[in-house]
Amino acid sequence: MVQNTHQDRGPGKGFGFGFGGFDKNEELLSLLKLDADKLGEELKAGKSLAAVAEAQGVSVDDLVSLLVEQQEAKLKEAVTAGKLTQEQADKMNENAADRVQKMVEGSFTKGAFRGHGEKKAEQDKAGEQ
Question: What is the reported pTM?
């Protein structure tokens, strides 16, 4: 039986992705040579994680590799713990590098990840003016 994998989810939990998780990711902070507060400031200022990495002299490829490795390790732990099947983990790992690449190139400003419907409504409203 596969258990609910969403328990204990929230800021700083899960895979360490999302605005609340980066500041708890010690390997990421070490790679970027930043503390959690400084990284948070940079992201709140609208910089992408890729831009922060580049400003710190870290290649985006190294950043993506770290985050993909972390995701793979978390999924392996979930399989070992019986929270996911291997098939589920494999599916989640498909195209992981591409997804992580897009994530690190995105901005974390308010509204950056709104749903398509909200964006469409804003476009329609702007067109009416």
Answer: 0.67
